[in-house]
Design goal:
CATH class of the largest domain: Mainly Alpha
Largest sheet: 3 strands, mixed
Helix content: over 70%
Radius of gyration: 42 Å
Order of helices and strands: HHHHEHEE
CATH topology of the largest domain: Helix Hairpins
Shape: rod-shaped
CATH architecture of the largest domain: Orthogonal Bundle
Distance between the termini: 13 Å
Number of helices: 5
Number of domains: 2
Mean pLDDT: 91
Bound molecules: zinc ion
Structural class: mainly alpha
Number of strands: 3
Strand content: under 5%
Low-confidence stretches: 1-9
Length: about 260
């Protein structure tokens, strides 16, 4: 049911009323076009803003696989230097054995000879232990070497992915920037004929209310805040003589023929 469809503005001469209605419709139409453009610009801008975090997330993924590789490489280095240290210790023990053997050869005292023989045995036992440790380290190194290979492969694959995605992001950015430039190119043209006061009000509202500034009044409810509108507001909106705003949220209201003004309870 359309409760207001029979209402007319009989207090104005028909031609004046018609003329100002035509003018009001034109303004509303221009505002809707402008709002549409602003929405598009907002969407493209927010997509552009989203590219930075996407890039950072990619970088973080790339860095973490690279860090895993560096970590494995560092462990290999550590194992290698530990093994070298053991090797040097073995070498030291071997030199001691050599020195003790010479001293043994030179001595004429039995107890000194025996003491040296004991020292030589102690060195030999130590060498066996050191060589066992060396073997253990080499085994560990073999495992870590496999980890390095796996990490290197993962890092290479990740780098490929990061490079590919980065190129995609760059292409997307370029595309969005072009879209934005196109959308902004004739922006000012869209607002000509709206009138400075209305335009200023629209821009102010846009800052406060975002992309829903000019709204319909379907079912006698404000399309922005969804509050039920007073009857006189609905009537003046339908008369389309003046720019009507929602008493609750301040948005600009408009009425189009397809809108059902029946109140939904
Ligand atoms: Zn409202």
């Amino acid at each position: 049911m359309d409760r207001f469809s029979g209402l007319t503005c009989s207090f104005w001469p028909d031609n004046v009323a018609e003329e100002s209605q035509r003018r009001m419709l034109e303004v509303i139409e221009k505002l809707l076009v402008l709002q549409d453009r602003d929405r598009l610009i907002l969407r493209v801008r927010s997509e552009l803003n989203g590219l930075g975090p996407e890039r950072q997330a990619l970088q973080v993924r790339g860095n973490s696989t690279q860090a895993a590789l560096e970590g494995a490489k560092l462990r290999i280095k550590q194992l290698e230097s530990d093994r070298k240290r053991l090797e040097l210790e073995v070498e030291g023990k071997k030199q001691l054995i050599e020195r003790y053997s010479i001293q043994q050869f030179q001595t004429k005292k039995n107890d000194e000879y025996r003491a040296l023989a004991h020292e030589i045995e102690t060195c030999k036992t130590a060498i066996v232990e050191l060589e066992d440790q060396e073997l253990d380290l080499m085994e560990q190194a073999e495992h870590v070497q496999k980890e390095v290979a796996a990490a290197a492969q993962a890092a290479a694959e990740m780098k490929k992915l990061v490079d590919q995605k980065t190129a995609e992001l760059a292409a997307r950015e370029q595309n969005l920037k072009k879209q934005l430039a196109d959308l902004e190119a004739n922006y000012d043209q869209l607002s000509t004929g709206i009138g400075e006061t209305v335009l200023a009000r629209y821009q102010r509202l846009r800052k406060q209310r975002g992309d829903k500034t000019v709204v319909g009044i379907e079912h006698s409810v404000c399309g922005g805040c969804h509050m039920k509108l007073p009857t006189h507001i609905v009537i003046s909106c339908q008369a389309q003589q003046d720019l009507v705003t929602c008493p609750n949220c301040g948005r600009m209201l408009y009425y189009a023929r397809h809108m059902d003004l029946a109140v939904v309870d």
